[in-house]
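Format is sequence with structure; example below:
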Amino acid sequence: MSTVHFKQVDVFTQVPFRGNPVAVVLEDKGLSTEAMQRVAAWTNLSETTFVLPPSSPAADYRLRIFTPRMELPFAGHPTIGSAHAVLEAGIARAKGGKLRQECGAGILDLQVEGEKLWLDSPKATETVFAETSDLERMLGAKLKGAPLIMNVGPRWLIAELGDAATVGAIGPDMAAVAALSVRLEIGGVTVFGAASDGRSAIHVRSFAPAHGIPEDPVCGSGNISVAAFLKRAGRLSDGYLARQGMQLGRDGEVSIRFDGDKILLGGSAVTCIEGTLRI
């Protein structure tokens, strides 16, 4: 049995217990993929990560990311939360204000700006989704425009609703969303609508029941996918603030900015738990 150090980090917030937690195992003790998956299933968080030595000299560290049911090539909130943990633990230091993370999606740059971390997101690709009426039945709401499947490592079906009130009120048919996700090989469905709170541009919700996550409190890859959806339509091109998680008692804040063709995902993080795991 091995003992490994870990942190539980709340992401997209500076206030503990208001964002989206990720468990970060900070040591490489030769754990097998099966052992990592068991730990992720046990934490029962949307993601658990494992920090490993990089396989490329171009990276500062390597990250493996697991949901309770499977490994992911990339995910936004675990990347930001793990970078926070790595910096806090002294495993890596920013060089010129940057960290370089190796993961299944390749080597990604993170910019460190005070307490906020900015992730240089993977390039998005899109697929047309024509089953609009079926999706409306699953969500219990009318869509505003055509939905798209956006691929940023994880694949999300992105749908725009009328406004933030509509986003907050929906109660999706989780069994139907799970079946659709399995059939389309996507992570789940992310919806968004225009906000009127005076702080944010949009409100977002993400549903991934096929991965054991009925609703993700604050989803990085879902927000990147929404940003790619909006960028494709030529909207909110100067960047914006999104809020997510209010229906789950959270209040995550996700910053988006654009740099040419790049989408940058920004957020703060705070450590809530530090300790050891016996694996």
Observations:
- Residues 169 and 247 are 9 Å apart (CA to CA).
- The mean pLDDT is 95.
- The longest helix spans residues 76-89.
- The first strand starts at residue 3 and ends at 11.
